[in-house]
Amino acid sequence: MKFVFQTMPAYGHLNPMLGVAQELINRGHKVTVYNVSEFKDKIESVGAEFKKLPLGTDTIDLRILHNAVNIAELSLQGTELLVDPLIKEIEEEKPDCLIHDSLSLWGKVVGLHTKIPTVALVPSMAINLKVILNQTSFLINDYKYIASHPLIFLNIMRRFRNVYMRKGLIPPFTTDIFSNSEKLNIVFTSRYFQPLEKSFNESYKFVGPIVYDRQEKQLNVITENNKPIIYVALGTIYNDKVDTYRSIIQALKVVGYPSYISIGKYINISDLGDIPPNVYIASYLPQLEMLGKSSLFISHCGMNSVNESLYFGVPLLMIPIIQEQRINAKRVEELGAGIYHKKQPIDIPQFVESINSLLQDKKYKHAADLASTALSSCGGAKEAANHILNFIS
């Protein structure tokens, strides 16, 4: 069978999707993935065919996505550009199934228009109106922005409706712009981790994190094997705050444990000042390799990072940056598997205290292990592929 995947051009959306794509390919199916050129090699490395999204540009700065309005705007812009050319290409290709992530509005519209069976992949927590209302305290800044910019919000809602109506489709409820749900929704976490899990019906299949061989370069940089290892990574999008890294480095100097920091592509190591001997810094570190050897993960709390950390039973010290990450941090703390550091800028003495607590108090490791058991029993990519194949058969 032939599958077409469409997703937001971001590692957090692409990585788990490619694990599912690889599983389908291993079972003898053909997979085509639409994305930007930056991810061409990564997509082809799992055996999928790459096709470039007809966006007219390959440069998309996802750092602007710091509130719900900006996320909706990017999704709408993409949809307005992509729907017509994608419908034309997909009708020519005649795939058996379309698969899109939960922010790819264009994927849902293309599926409805072509009447090809369509599946949604959810790389974050699943979203519905009950979850949104339950997380009001974390979304208050979004509500304030909407209240102070009503015309922007009303314009987004108008465009959202028009995207559907232009194709003769009935627009769904407004919140669907952030979930784009289908008759089958594959969620990359467990019901154990999902807030208000009972509010989701059987169309939502919780398969846990998609942990697979990403063919990442293994650096083998960890030389200590008799001390706790601390791994630090703040994601691939909002990781450009030099002061945040400087504060973390100061705290790591105080605790003295061997520590490894992945700083991404926006910062030069020379910007970070003097680096203590117990701290190793690189622009890239292979996350799965690092988590498999670490005792603590200092993280921005993106969903992939949370899933992968808990999959390996590693407690988290969390410094979330955007609303979704704050919701994740709250949930990890509720489960007892980490500490949510709320003070910004970072309170270094408090940060040091949290590091020591997470490494010395066994309750955090125990909670992370419970979450690991729940996540690893969900089935991952194999279970996701089973659900997809059952759905279209």
Automatic annotation (TrEMBL):
| CDD domains linked to this entry | GT1_Gtf-like (cd03784)
> What keywords does the record list, in alphabetical order?
Glycosyltransferase, Transferase
Q: Which Gene3D superfamilies match?
A: Glycogen Phosphorylase B
User: What is the superkingdom listed in this entry's lineage?
Assistant: Bacteria
In terms of InterPro entries, this protein maps to: UDP-glycosyltransferase, UDP_glucos_trans, UDPGT_MGT-like
Q: GO molecular function, one example?
A: hexosyltransferase activity
Pfam families recorded: UDPGT (PF00201)
Supply the SUPFAM superfamilies for this chain.
UDP-Glycosyltransferase/glycogen phosphorylase (SSF53756)
Under PANTHER family, the record lists:
EG:EG0003.4 PROTEIN-RELATED, FI06409P-RELATED
Family recorded in the similarity comment? Belongs to the UDP-glycosyltransferase family.
Descriptive protein name = Glycosyl transferase
- Natural source organism: Candidatus Roizmanbacteria bacterium CG11_big_fil_rev_8_21_14_0_20_37_16
